[in-house]
């Protein structure tokens, strides 16, 4: 097929040859509302959102800010542009999207987006103390590497991300390791895209609030080799995809038998329980409990985020409390230095944490409890990581 070519002369008299087949894309790009600013963060941390949608009947703004600002806010149409001002907002990182005639859509005027599984939204950073922990700051940065490793337990090659602290490649020092788990529906990229884990650790190390550490971010779904690849391992392991596969116990086994040995063979780490930490949110909090209950001598720093009593000790429909208590007592004998529990007041799993605390109190198991305003969301999980990382390896 012959290419259709035409010529354009710009304002400076320069001749351009363009492929005619690209003309629709050029016209589309020129039609984008380049003069519209959205979001616009004002000096008092109020934020104005704008969307040009001349044919829309209604547009709403949805975001992860505190519930006092409302999650779904109708926008006002002026000429062809919908607009809304909210705030002042507390310093934090938020996700937002527009609901255009009932359909979620991204803000076309912002290139800042995050991904959590199939959920993609825009990112908003509101300046201040909390955002300073999550934002890119002029501090030494650690390296981030995607690593493929063999999982004999799952019978496949898998991918994880390894964060090494600033200076790792320039010295011979050995470091402690934090193993960081994600929630159901996520993957190994989400703690980077939405969780800002590498920037959080960078900023905490730079301000001497956290010890320099290696961070291992795994894929907690045993039937997924890596994001965003197809779930190739599902057929090999005959495990149903979804939450059931993530709660099958196979990942927990793989982390202990495959991931930790790989890290301790290929990185300069201090390979003992005093220098291992494990934490995760939601389904990752469930996996954290399973791993540490079954391996009481492996980790001295344990963080359970947004997950309570959701035990594997359910057989024939009955909860086998005595088996669970036995494991907790073994864990207690190994005297973890930090056992940290975090939950938001409006989290749908709040009652499960109440039950877990009641059991721990009954057993006499020591823990640190953190309750915050919020829901089952990334505002909480970024906060939890920033706080738990400061307790680890002290």
Brief rundown of the structure:
This protein has eleven helices and 22 strands. It has 394 residues and is α+β, with helices and mostly antiparallel strands.
Task: Please name the defining characteristics of this protein.
six-stranded antiparallel sheet; 394 residues; 11 helices; Rossmann fold; eight-stranded mixed sheet; alpha+beta
Mean pLDDT: 87
Looking at the structure, what is the overall shape?
A: globular
What is the level 1 CATH name of the largest domain? Alpha Beta
| CATH superfamily (homologous) name of the largest domain | Alpha/Beta hydrolase fold, catalytic domain
Q: Judging by the overall fold, what is the CATH architecture of the largest domain?
A: 3-Layer(aba) Sandwich
Give the tally of β-strands: 22
- Quote the beta fraction: 25-35%
By CATH, the topology of the largest domain is Rossmann fold
Instruction: Give the low-pLDDT segments.
Output: 1-30
**Continuous helix count:** 11
* Count of spatially separate domains: 3
What class, by secondary structure content?
alpha+beta
Strand order of the largest sheet: 13-14-16-15-17-18-21-22
From the N-terminal CA to the C-terminal CA, the straight-line distance is 67 Å
The helicity comes to 25-40%
Main β sheet profile: 8 strands, mixed
Mind telling me the C-alpha Rg? 24 Å
What does this structure look like?
The chain is 27% helix and 29% strand. The protein has 394 residues and is an alpha+beta fold. It folds into three domains: 1-31, no CATH class; 37-126, Immunoglobulins (Immunoglobulin-like); 134-391, 3-Layer(aba) Sandwich (Rossmann fold). The strands form five sheets. An eight-stranded mixed β-sheet has the order 13-14-16-15-17-18-21-22, with helices on both faces. Strands 5, 6, 9, 10, 11 and 12 form a six-stranded antiparallel β-sheet that branches. The termini are far apart.
């Amino acid at each position: 097929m012959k290419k259709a070519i035409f010529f354009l002369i710009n304002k400076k008299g320069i001749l351009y040859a363009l492929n005619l087949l690209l003309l629709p894309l050029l016209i589309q790009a020129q039609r984008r509302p380049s003069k519209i600013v959205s979001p616009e963060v004002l000096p008092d941390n109020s934020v104005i959102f704008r969307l040009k949608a001349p044919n829309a009947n209604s547009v709403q703004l949805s975001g992860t800010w505190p519930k006092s600002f409302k999650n779904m806010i109708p926008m006002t149409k002026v000429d062809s542009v919908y607009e809304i001002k909210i705030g002042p907002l507390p310093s934090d990182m938020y996700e937002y999207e527009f609901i255009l005639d009932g359909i979620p859509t991204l803000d076309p005027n912002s290139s800042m987006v995050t991904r959590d599984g199939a959920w993609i939204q825009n990112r908003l950073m509101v300046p201040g103390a909390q955002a300073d922990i999550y934002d890119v700051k002029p501090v030494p940065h650690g390296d981030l590497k995607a690593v493929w490793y063999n999982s004999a337990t799952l019978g496949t090659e898998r991918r994880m991300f390894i964060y090494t602290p600033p200076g790792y490649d320039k010295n011979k020092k050995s470091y402690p390791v934090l193993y960081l788990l994600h929630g159901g529906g996520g993957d190994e990229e989400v703690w980077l895209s939405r969780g800002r884990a590498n920037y959080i650790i960078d900023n905490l190390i730079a301000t001497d609030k956290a010890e320099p550490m290696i961070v291992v971010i795994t894929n907690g779904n045993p039937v997924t080799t890596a994001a965003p690849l197809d779930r190739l391992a599902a057929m090999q392991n005959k495990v149903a995809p979804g939450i059931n596969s993530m709660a099958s116990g196979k990942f927990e086994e793989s982390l202990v038998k495959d991931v930790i040995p790989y890290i301790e063979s290929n990185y300069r780490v201090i390979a003992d329980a005093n220098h291992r930490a494990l934490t995760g949110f939601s389904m990752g909090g469930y996996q954290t409990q399973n791993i540490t209950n079954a391996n009481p001598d492996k980790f001295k720093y344990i963080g359970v985020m947004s997950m309570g009593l959701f035990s594997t000790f359910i057989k024939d429909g009955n909860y086998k409390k005595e088996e669970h208590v036995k494991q907790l007592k073994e864990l207690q004998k190994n005297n973890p230095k930090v056992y940290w529990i975090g939950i938001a007041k409006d989290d749908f799993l709040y009652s499960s944490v109440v039950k877990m605390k009641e059991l721990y109190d009954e057993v006499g198991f020591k823990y640190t409890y953190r309750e915050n305003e919020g829901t089952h969301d990334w505002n909480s999980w970024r906060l939890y990581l920033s706080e738990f990382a400061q307790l680890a390896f002290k």
